[in-house]
Design a protein that fits this description.
alpha/beta; 3-stranded antiparallel beta sheet; 9 helices; globular
Length: 279
């Protein structure tokens, strides 16, 4: 009895120290953030540039919440995990933010060729730093918005994940360079992975690129919309089906706790979905 009790308390102490002082793993190849480290990060400010070591990478960042949330999605849950046909897949990353997706793809496929777009200047500066300080090669970084033409777009740069293309009604916006994704896809007969997280611009971009989607093997789209625009979602799903994709959908954010009562929220989007397309 005494021996069993000692083992019990030894396991309790071991678990305590593991939770509070060290990284563990959540069924993926990468460590989850230790409880104490996460608490420390949460209490940091949103404005100054900071640095943290995660998954063998040195990561420059500003927003603690976005760092924690994005790391869990990309490295712990591995929402972008895919099986490439070879060791050097071609990956087009639209909306790379500060570079978590690029870092993840390079961990999985060190020889991957990556083209990454980020229109927000503040985010792009951190993206450049994170690619450089982790010595990533074969990565092309473009400080442009992915869009349906090359004429530039009005862009609301917030230095966050919510930076987006806007119309003329938004006053605090600047014109930034844009690149028509259709031309990018047309230049490559086969693309292993297309990732698109462009805060609402995905609807127009996907419609413009519909004819070239059959050239893509795997595709991740973060859809941003409203309940009143359900036709946009059904249009995208029809395009994916015609391009030969099977589709799996998860909630990216759960805005309506009681949809029959709430109906919609008073914000830009009340529907945010992760759409996984594969063949």
């Amino acid at each position: 009895m005494g021996s069993n009790l000692n083992v019990f308390w030894a396991n309790i102490v071991k678990g305590f120290f593991k939770k509070f002082s060290s990284e563990g793993r959540d069924g993926s190849g990468f460590e989850r953030i230790a409880w104490l480290k996460e608490k420390q990060i949460k209490h940091l400010d949103d404005f100054t540039e900071k640095s943290v070591s995660l998954a063998g990478n040195t990561i420059a960042y500003k927003k603690p919440y976005e760092l924690l949330h994005t790391y869990k999605d990309i490295f712990v849950k591995e929402i972008y995990q895919f099986d490439a046909d070879g060791k050097n897949p071609l990956i087009i990353d639209c909306g790379a933010n500060i570079g978590f997706s690029v870092l993840y793809f390079k961990k999985k496929y060190p020889s991957a060729q990556i083209v990454a777009y980020e229109a927000d200047g503040g985010n792009f500066s951190l993206l450049e730093k994170n690619v450089a300080q982790n010595h990533l090669d074969n990565v092309t970084l473009l400080n442009k918005a992915v869009w349906v033409h090359d004429d530039g777009v009005r862009f609301n740069a917030k230095g966050t994940e919510a930076s987006r293309i806007v119309d003329g009604a938004v006053s605090d916006a600047d014109v930034v360079p844009s690149e028509r994704l259709f031309h990018v896809l047309a230049a490559h007969p086969s693309i292993d992975f297309l990732k698109m997280d462009i805060e609402g611009a995905e609807y127009e971009v996907i419609k413009d690129c519909a004819a070239l989607l059959p050239n893509i093997k795997n595709m991740f789209i973060e859809y941003h919309g409203t309940v009143e625009e359900t036709d946009k979602l059904t249009t995208l799903l029809d395009i994916f089906s015609k391009a030969g994709f099977k589709v799996y959908i998860k909630n990216a954010a759960d805005f309506l706790q009681h949809p029959y009562v709430d109906k919609k929220v008073n914000s830009i989007y009340d529907v945010q979905l992760n759409i996984f397309c594969y063949k």
